[in-house]
From TrEMBL:
<dbReference type="InterPro" id="IPR000310">
    <property type="entry name" value="Orn/Lys/Arg_deCO2ase_major_dom"/>
</dbReference>
<dbReference type="InterPro" id="IPR015424">
    <property type="entry name" value="PyrdxlP-dep_Trfase"/>
</dbReference>
<dbReference type="InterPro" id="IPR052357">
    <property type="entry name" value="Orn_Lys_Arg_decarboxylase-I"/>
</dbReference>
<keyword id="KW-0210">Decarboxylase</keyword>
<protein>
    <submittedName>
        <fullName>Ornithine decarboxylase</fullName>
    </submittedName>
</protein>
<feature type="domain" description="Orn/Lys/Arg decarboxylase C-terminal">
    <location>
        <begin position="415"/>
        <end position="464"/>
    </location>
</feature>
<dbReference type="Pfam" id="PF03711">
    <property type="entry name" value="OKR_DC_1_C"/>
</dbReference>
<dbReference type="InterPro" id="IPR008286">
    <property type="entry name" value="Prn/Lys/Arg_de-COase_C"/>
</dbReference>
<dbReference type="InterPro" id="IPR036633">
    <property type="entry name" value="Prn/Lys/Arg_de-COase_C_sf"/>
</dbReference>
<comment type="similarity">
    <text>Belongs to the Orn/Lys/Arg decarboxylase class-I family.</text>
</comment>
<keyword id="KW-0456">Lyase</keyword>
<dbReference type="GO" id="GO:0016831">
    <property type="term" value="F:carboxy-lyase activity"/>
</dbReference>
<keyword id="KW-0663">Pyridoxal phosphate</keyword>
<dbReference type="Pfam" id="PF01276">
    <property type="entry name" value="OKR_DC_1"/>
</dbReference>
<dbReference type="InterPro" id="IPR015421">
    <property type="entry name" value="PyrdxlP-dep_Trfase_major"/>
</dbReference>
<feature type="domain" description="Orn/Lys/Arg decarboxylases family 1 pyridoxal-P attachment site">
    <location>
        <begin position="6"/>
        <end position="310"/>
    </location>
</feature>
Length: 484
């Protein structure tokens, strides 16, 4: 296919050239009706914010702009089919789960899954068969499930409709997708990979193996995370004959907005062209930048750039080195504290911080200049730091984090419930999910039996700066539990 073509970007340019005008949404009419103060900030975006149909395309979509852009995306990455979504990978993964298991059984699910997967369980009523993460107890860090764990899960639950794993994790660690896919396919069952952090993987041989190349049946990627799209831009990739593509499209239509944002479509279309034409050279440069970042950050006292600790037989299968994960525990500070200092004092934001780590996510937009700004900022933080800020985060042992699932997530979430004081929650069944964010992996899932260790971890974490936005009470003074 001709990857110099951008059907949606070209159609949008033509829409503007012709001076089309629609008596349709959006009501701002390409910015004509917007507040001038808003136009000052969003003018270019508003001009390109037009209705998809009838607007960019006609009322019957006879131009085929979206279909052509999706076909080009599939060809660029070697998938059989691709679907664009403007509601983020959170929607895409729900649609994939419903297409594979909705109405007819359960899914084998890694317990280190993102909150969107748990939300999919609640929406669909699908029964999860959890795979416990592999825990590094020393570093309080989880690794993706191994093929052996997936095989044991299939042996115990052969009735499952499929399996779903997250790879790469928000930290850049990757599962052995090829090994897991082979085990699923031995049983004639599909593998879904939530690869939200891996949109760039097909475009460079030094990056971890992309899920489709490793044999996954459905792969969901977020173009905005490691690509160059707008927030909420997501793509489903599909291959093989184990997934009903018609059902997948219908499930996506059930969940997706009827007012898709053309800006998101256009950005995904243009990013595909950029990567098809220049992806390897752009990622060559990004990987060189990542090596420079790792080298320089490693020289700062008390900051350990993690790499070897993340890989191995009992750890992760591979690592995306554009995700520069730093253990800061030797400084006595929490990652929350450092992230707050960088934002307040150096105007630098970090996408992820936890009780002992910070993460710098690099992309093809970064270079030596941006990396050196981060290095200089961390050196400045280290030089001004005197005594560590006291904190007392209760870190549960791995077995204490393995909460027992006693109800379907859907039944617990939608059933009769009540709010109880946090101290009274141990021994009760959770009716809401509780997710430190980022990285967005739930500590408590609806239907799980809450224990004291997890409550103390959350209480002490919030006191130290942990962000837990999910619960009805974000201060965690109370939790919603199933009514007795």
């Amino acid at each position: 296919m001709d990857h110099s073509q951008t059907p949606i970007v070209t159609a949008l340019r033509e829409y503007q050239r012709l001076g089309r005008y629609g008596f349709t949404p959006p009501g701002h009419r390409q910015g004509l009706g917007a507040d001038p103060r808003v136009l000052d900030v969003l003018g270019g975006a508003l001009r390109a914010d037009v209705l998809a149909t009838p607007g960019l395309d006609d009322r019957l979509s006879r131009g085929g702009f979206l279909a052509d852009a999706e076909a080009l995306m599939a060809d660029a990455v070697g998938a059989d089919m691709a679907f664009f979504s403007t509601c983020g990978s959170s929607l895409s993964v729900k649609a994939a789960m419903m297409a594979v298991a909705g109405g007819r059984g359960g899914l084998i699910v890694g317990r280190d899954s993102h909150k969107s997967i748990v939300a999919g369980l609640v929406f669909s009523g699908v029964q999860p068969y959890w795979i416990t993460p592999r825990w590094d107890a020393e570093r309080h860090f989880s690794h993706p499930p191994s093929p052996e764990q997936v095989r044991r899960a299939w042996d115990e639950h052969p009735e499952a409709a499929g399996a779903i794993i997250v790879s790469p994790s928000p930290y850049g660690t990757c599962a052995d997708i090829a090994g897991i896919a082979e085990i699923c396919h031995e049983r004639g069952k599909p593998l879904i990979v939530d690869e939200a952090w891996g949109a760039h993987l097909p475009f460079h041989p030094e990056l971890p193996t992309w899920a489709m190349d490793a044999g996954a049946d459905i792969c969901v990627v977020s173009v905005h995370k490691m690509g160059a799209g707008f927030e909420q831009g997501s793509v489903f990739h599909v291959q093989g004959d184990l997934v009903d593509r018609g059902r997948l499209k219908l499930c996506a239509d059930l969940l997706m907005t009827t007012s898709p944002n053309v800006l998101l479509y256009a950005a995904m279309d243009g990013w595909r062209r950029q990567m098809a034409e220049h992806g390897q050279e752009l990622l060559d440069a990004a990987l060189r930048t990542a090596r420079h970042a790792r080298d320089q950050l490693s020289t700062i006292p008390g900051i350990a750039v993690m790499e070897r600790e993340l890989l191995g037989v009992e750890a992760s299968h591979d690592l995306d080195r554009l995700q520069v994960l730093m253990d800061v525990s030797a400084t006595g500070a929490t990652g929350y504290e450092i992230a707050d200092w960088l934002r307040e004092n150096r105007r630098i934001d970090l996408g992820m911080s936890d009780h002992r780590r910070i993460l710098a996510t690099l992309s093809m937009a970064d270079d030596k200049t941006t990396v050196d700004t981060l290095v200089d900022a961390l050196i400045a933080w280290r030089l001004q730091r005197n005594e560590p800020t006291p904190h007392d985060i209760r870190l549960p042992a791995p077995r204490e984090l393995e909460l027992r699932s006693v109800m379907l997530p859907r039944d617990a979430f939608f059933g009769p419930c009540e709010s109880v004081a946090l101290d009274a929650a141990p021994g009760r069944i959770a009716a809401e999910q509780v997710t430190p964010y980022p990285p967005g992996i739930p500590v408590i899932v609806p239907g799980e039996l809450i224990d004291t260790a997890v409550v103390e971890y959350l209480r002490s974490g919030v006191a130290a700066g942990m962000n837990v936005p999910d619960p009805a009470d974000p201060q965690l003074r109370t939790l919603r539990v199933v009514r007795r």
